[in-house]
Amino acid sequence: MNLSNATLGDLPGGIARPRYDRSRLTPGIVHIGVGNFHRAHQAWYLHRLMQQGLAHDWAIVGAGVRPYDAGQRLKLAAQDYLTTLIELDPAGRSAEVVGSMIDFVPVEEGHGALIARMADPAIRIVSLTVTEGGYYPDASGRGLDLGHPDIRHDAANPGSPRTAFGAMVAALKRRRANGDGPFTGQSCDNLQDNGAVLRRTVVGLARLSDPDLADWINENCSFPNSMVDCIVPATGPRELALARDFGLDDAAPVAHETFRQWVMEDDFCAGRPDWDQVGATFSGNVEAFETMKIRLLNGGHQLIANAGELLSVETISGCMANPLIGPYLRKVTLEEIVPHVDAVPGMTPEAYVALIERRWSNPEIVDTVRRVAFDGSSRHSGFLLPVLRDALRTSGPIEGLALAEALWARMCAGRREDGTVIAANDPIWEQLTDAAQQARQTPQVWLQQRAIYGDLAEDDRFSSAFCSWLDAIYANGTEAALISYLGEASEDWRGRAPRTAGR
To answer: Matching PANTHER family, A to Z (predicted)?
Structure first.
């Protein structure tokens, strides 16, 4: 059955669907970056509110600034912006059709339609999922990259920008001129202090062309920090087939796990939906939740993804089932990361480690190692290296963290241990591969990538551990390195000679 408003009443039995009249919904949110995560997370929370008869004036208008977004718009428009969410629980699968998105602005050069929609006073929140590296950070990670061609273009052409942030600035300029007031900018990306990062990007870009407007935005708009969490694999043939198994022809279904979390500051200058009534948390200490999630979950992903890639393990659940990679995750997180993570209401760091182990072991979630390993240059910098710095400062253990960096360096050399090629998987893949190839003979070369490691290369304790692990990986292989770190091989590995991967 084709998915559309007209067929909602005839969906196969057992599929949950909107109980509200979608024709009576009015927009309140523009969301930029309508990927799978947004539709399984923020759009789902809003849908749940609408199912209770609430927030019908907060419907979502989708938007995007990349070529991919134009294709996504066509797919969703053809099915009235409905999405099938498929929950993958080992105990059984279920499906739900979500209807909280009602439109998707055209994706066009200069973003005129997007600017006009965000300038509409009915829009009170502009939210984004544009990936961790999509905020144009400078080399320090603490400022805006003023030399980036997109930023320079938007500064010189504020009325026809290239970036989502330039479009936000243009819309806010129009709202100020019309006396329509500000909107809230809400980042939903995996970034520490993501609201502050969004403020820095929008205000910093505005300042390049209109300092008075920049001051107005900084004083009147709000940019709440938030933490988001849900495992949402990319949609491929398997997900399309899952939708068909439920009797639905959905061009863009979304599969997801059973767990969701959304914690945010209650700082919305133009109002907000009551997301807390459907499980979201408003907190004055988002940083603690954020730190726990980023260091243990996002950092944990980087611990296992590079080892999995090198050993040709395709999925995260496969990594958890591996007799070396799963124990490696547990040992590093409990011994080297947990000491640098505080408890939050209702959850200790140790309990959180157990939670992510259960979530990642779900075989129904086909979350690929390749997806998790993507953009390691941003993810190692943001998720693992801050913990490493804390451990060095407090003289804590670092061997597992150093091994993680060595595994990443070995992965970026571009071949798995079975000899197959690892396709480019980072925005700066060529730079990483060049450094990794040189590091085969001189490991210290890898740490000289200042934009990633800063002054860590000068820390003798870390540098020595890293170089020793990279030498060991090239001499004896990934399995042998993991066995060495774990101290005692598991029963499955005792007496087995490790594979070698010489220079």
So the answer is: MANNITOL DEHYDROGENASE 2-RELATED, MANNITOL DEHYDROGENASE DSF1-RELATED
Q: How many CA atoms lie within 13 A of 149 on its CB side?
A: 0
- Cβ-in-10-Å burial (0-12, 13-18, 19+) of 460 comes to exposed
Widest CA span of the chain, in angstroms? 75
DSSP string, 210-224: -HHHHHHHHHH----
Place of tokens 């990483």: 432
Q: Are strands 59-63 and 27-32 parallel, antiparallel or unpaired?
A: parallel
> How remote is the C-alpha of 259 from its chain's centroid?
15
Query: Contact, 27 vs 103, CB < 8 A?
Result: yes
Which residues share a beta bridge with 421? 415
Q: Are 170 and 158 in contact (CB under 8 A)?
A: yes
From CA 213, how far away is CA 366, in angstroms rounded? 46
Please list the helix, strand and coil fractions of the chain in percent, rounded to the nearest 5, in that order.
Answer: 50, 10, 40
Fold of 287-486: N-(1-d-carboxylethyl)-l-norvaline Dehydrogenase; domain 2 (1.10.1040)
Assigned CATH class of 5-270: alpha beta
Who's near 271: CB < 8 A, 6+ residues apart?
124
Cα–Cα dist 482/478, whole Å = 6
Distance, in Å, from the CA atom of 172 to the CA atom of 165, rounded to the nearest integer, reads 11
Do 5-270 and 287-486 share a fold? no
Structure tokens at 92: 């059984």
Q: Tokens 């936000």, residue?
A: 168
Pairing of strands 226-229, 261-264: antiparallel
Our separate counts of H helices and E strands in the chain read 23, 11
User: For the segment 42-82, what is each residue's pLDDT rounded down to a tens digit?
Assistant: 999 999 999 999 999 999 999 999 888 999 999 999 999 99
pLDDT, tens digit (0-9, with 9 covering 90-100), for 210-263: 999 999 999 999 999 999 999 998 899 999 999 999 999 999 999 999 999 999
User: What is the CB neighbour count within 10 angstroms for residue 383?
Assistant: 25
Residue spans per domain, the chain: 5-270, 287-486
